[in-house]
Amino acid sequence: MYFAFTEDQLAITDAARTMLLEACTAADLRKLLETGKTHDDARWSTIVEMGLLGILAPEDLGGLGMGPTDLVGIAEAAGYVGLPEPLVELAGVAIPLLASLEDNKGWLERALGGEYVAVGHPINRFVIDADRAGALLLADGGAVHLVPAEAVTLVRHDSFDDFRRLFTIDWTPSADTLVAASWGQTAERGALFAAAQLVGLGQRCIDLAVAYAKDRTQFGKPIGSYQAVKHLIANAQVQIEFARPVVHAAAAELALNNEASKARGAHAKIAASEAADLAARTAVQVFGAMGMTREADVHVFLKRVMGLRTSWGTSFRHLATVLDRITSERTGPDATFAAELAH
Prior knowledge:
Largest sheet: 4 strands, mixed
Radius of gyration: 20 Å
CATH superfamily of the largest domain: Acyl-CoA dehydrogenase/oxidase, N-terminal domain
């Protein structure tokens, strides 16, 4: 099977990446940390104006009517810059769920306009950025409830990542808030786009390590000239290069919603998590003692990697999905990586 992104997909990804690289620099993130803020209103307005939030929403509902392969590169770019605003969470998870509801109570239009809707899926222990949400999609058993922010009580929890505000929610389900009997593919979408962000984060950590290894000298030579350092960084880059196409394949197959596509998505989350973790730890090692301090930008990306590794399912959970695929369907050169099997 031949797979490549179309010119239109590459164009929208490049436009989003260029904007994010210019609008979300490491210096910008440091300014937010100094002021105690976690989001930049001007940057969020730019994201909304570009129409990025509506990529997965149908055209007849005000979106762009595109698919996961159109968003996966943007999610990777968001990871690369450590974007603190919930572009991926809203565009990749909340808005597709709202669009699937018979009655979204007007919140799809509001979300496309930039109002945040937080997602409290049962796979996650905490709800991210619930204090910024105008409404929340919450679980009661397997059912989905759309609850206005004024009807919930938030309990804040400490977060390893300064930009990820974590909450548990006290609320009371009712017939008025019930909007769906199940979550559909929400967990699969969440895992896919978390994996894409992890690939971007891993690549950023590697790039930071390479830049530092070129500038930092030891015994009169750049430390990047030493074979041991080269091998460390190269090994991490190889992991990222192997994880990226798995994430792309998972995006291409998500719509199939079969056992093979679910296993592919699980594999993507595992591969991206392990690659990003190795890249972040390698970067810290290359930076040496400075890598353990806030003086090095790498700490911002390391923390985001740690947060996303367990978001939308741990590697152990996703491994179980892969094992289910292996043990329930035939394997072999023509079957193991097939998107669909003839029975």
